[in-house]
Write a sequence for this structure.
């Protein structure tokens, strides 16, 4: 079994990566191979609506200049995809993660639901405030891509505390 975690934070070694590492730990102990891919800070562009993915049948995006295809190609053989993002303004996903979701969903649809049956989970880094919009957008992507999206209960934690290897609740 193989899990791919996608770090949408522009801070490659920040708290979102730490949260992803914590999520991957039990999978690794269970014998899964895991991989964290860095998306944040890559300048990933949004889908331009060219629809070449529907016409070409090549399986990858026609826009080849920003690294999207290398990440997407690693998702295809994976059994589980874990999407990590800090919550941006208004508790939404950061722009590069939004762009990634849009292009992945479009491409998966163009290729006969290429992500169908994979397990999808979201890790939203929210030191304080709400994560509901970010969580909702990630899980709508999973469900529209016909992925398996396990139920989840969310809580706010101070990921900076986890990053220092201490769990500190921001609820206090």
């Amino acid at each position: 079994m193989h899990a791919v975690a996608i770090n949408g934070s522009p801070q490659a070694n920040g708290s979102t990566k730490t949260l992803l590492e914590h999520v991957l730990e039990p999978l690794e102990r269970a014998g899964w191979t895991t991989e964290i891919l860095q998306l944040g800070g890559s300048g990933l562009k949004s889908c331009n609506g060219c629809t070449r993915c529907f016409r070409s049948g090549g399986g990858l995006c026609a826009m080849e200049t920003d690294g999207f295809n290398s990440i997407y190609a690693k998702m295809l053989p994976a059994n589980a995809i874990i999407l990590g993002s800090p919550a941006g303004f208004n508790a939404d996903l950061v722009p590069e993660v939004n762009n990634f979701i849009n292009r992945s969903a479009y491409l998966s649809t163009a290729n006969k639901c290429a992500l169908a049956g994979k397990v999808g989970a979201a890790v939203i880094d929210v030191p304080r405030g709400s994560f509901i919009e970010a969580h909702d957008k990630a899980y709508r992507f999973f469900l529209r891509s016909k992925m398996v999206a396990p139920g989840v209960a969310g809580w706010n934690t101070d990921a900076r505390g986890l990053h220092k290897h201490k769990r500190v609740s921001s609820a206090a």
